[in-house]
Amino acid sequence: MKRLSALALCLCALPMLAQAPAKADKKPEKPHFEFGIPDKPFTSDVAKLIQEIGDHSQAFANLQQMTDTIGPRLTGSQKLRDAQKWAMDKLTSYGAVNVHEEAYDFGKPWFRGAASARLLNGNNQQLEIAQWAWTNGTKGPIKGQVALLEAKTLAEFKAALPSLDGKIVLAVSRPRPTAEERKDMGAWYKSYLELAKQAKYAALLTSSEKDNGFLTMSGSPNPRWSGSTAPMAVISKEHANLLKRLIKEDGQHPEIELNLGGHIGETPVKAYNVVAEIKGSTWPDQVVIVGGHQDSWDLATGATDNGTGTVVAMETLRAIKALGVAPKRTIRVILFSGEEEGLLGSNAYAEAHKADMAKIQAVLVDDMGTGAIQGWPDMGQEQWRGYLAQAMAPMNNLGVTDIGAFIQPGDTDHWPFYELGVPAFAAIQDPVDYMTMTHHSQVDSLEHVNKETLIQGAQAMASAAWVFANMDARVPHIAPATKKGPF
Ligand SMILES: [Zn+2]
């Protein structure tokens, strides 16, 4: 009996299916699948859900509207507020209930301005840069000699500082903690930031780690992250290498003109998480959270980070409502903000709802670009693998087969929940060109989104949410983390 037809039986067989892995021990042949079209018409609700998304997905259309029409969604910006209003209207139109936004203290907003840099001597070329977010601008163009910062330890960093006063500093390498220092990262980080605050650079340049001129943006209003107060920008790897060669190989003293027009706002603002629900029919107070951050960086339109995760969460709710069947547990869509600045929105949400954490059956987050969902990591918990296998079973023949045996670190919004002992997972996705091209870069735009894998992602998310919302068993929680991680 082919695995698929076993699946077509009906979902109530899931627990039995969970035991099915025994059969699955035999390495399953590489599943043949065409995105969006399951091999056989399924009868069960989850099969209809997968079919509904395959046939009528609005994910790409929503993504096009949110990115090309509304645009980059920096937390603290009016653009993100517009996108949040748009999302709430959409979710309401899909039939969601309890659609609202929850405010939290964010900090001072940041406003990007014009930015440029060029070599004043040598070959006089323009340099590819973008101002680092939440840093001060140069208040008009400044000129200065470029100096390299090559410090691998805190001691080397301290020794190098005096020679960098008044220079436009290109950070070639950053101090790293020794094995001994790793034992107390908090202390190490504190010393690093104190040293960085003593720096008297004219400006600081950090090289992108991407090739082909692609930049990687970052920054945060969170004082925990801010070291040097000098104007700062990211420079393309190619142009950073040029400056390094001129200094180290050609013995030249490059001078550049740098103009950074961005600025930090005066008054701290609130930021918001968007929430919308489908109430559960049997256990309405138990909740499955489907999330993704709606905020993005602002060098492009944040299509793959995290427009894709946002519309996958919205499509999950649309399709379940279109199905017209209520899940047994409540399914709650949360579009977080402040993720790029340090999980600020999800941390605020988890903190505000700490008392209700026990009611959460599972948290599912999509935040890894346009690639197909391949599975979910067990977060180091053997006991969660069986539940994940059940949640993935409906999509086994559509590429969702991987239960990762690892803890997905605190790089997205599942983390604050996981730290409180909640079964919280961020999808494993085909990396495609996420880290090498679109992630936080100036080309994170719609044409780099694959329509088919976006549909597959929504099918994987919706079916997993549905299975968690309808299974009889409660997924066991673990003990909350004793020491909060860096995020
Ligand atoms: Zn992201």
Secondary-structure map:
Layout: H1 3-8, H2 14-19, H3 21-24, H4 45-56, H5 59-70, H6 78-93, E1 97-107, E2 110-111, E3 115-119, E4 129-131, E5 142-150, H7 154-160, E6 168-173, H8 185-198, E7 203-207, E8 232-235, H9 237-248, E9 255-260, E10 263-264, E11 269-278, E12 283-293, H10 303-323, E13 329-336, H11 344-352, E14 360-365, E15 373-377, H12 382-392, E16 402-404, H13 415-419, E17 424-426, E18 428-429, H14 434-438, H15 451-470
Parallel strand pairs: 5-6, 6-7, 7-8, 12-13, 12-14, 14-17, 15-16
Antiparallel strand pairs: 1-11, 2-10, 3-9, 4-8, 5-9, 11-13, 15-18
Helix pairs in contact: 4-10, 4-15, 5-10, 10-15, 12-15
The structure holds zinc ion.
Account of the protein in words:
- The longest helix is centred in the middle third of the chain and has 21 residues, at 303-323.
- This protein folds into two domains: 40-106 and 268-470, Aminopeptidase, CATH 3.40.630; 113-264, Glucose Oxidase, domain 1 (3-Layer(bba) Sandwich).
- Strand 12 (283-293), helix 10 and strand 13 (329-336) form a beta-alpha-beta unit.
- Helix 12 (382-392) crosses helix 15 (451-470).
- It has helices at residues 3-8, 14-19, 21-24, 45-56, 59-70, 78-93, 154-160, 185-198, 237-248, 303-323, 344-352, 382-392, 415-419, 434-438, 451-470; strands at residues 97-107, 110-111, 115-119, 129-131, 142-150, 168-173, 203-207, 232-235, 255-260, 263-264, 269-278, 283-293, 329-336, 360-365, 373-377, 402-404, 424-426, 428-429.
- The protein is built from 15 helices and 18 strands.
- Helices cover 33% and strands 21% of the residues.
- The protein is elongated and about 70 Å long.
- The protein has 487 residues and is α/β, with parallel strands linked by helices.
- The structure holds zinc ion.
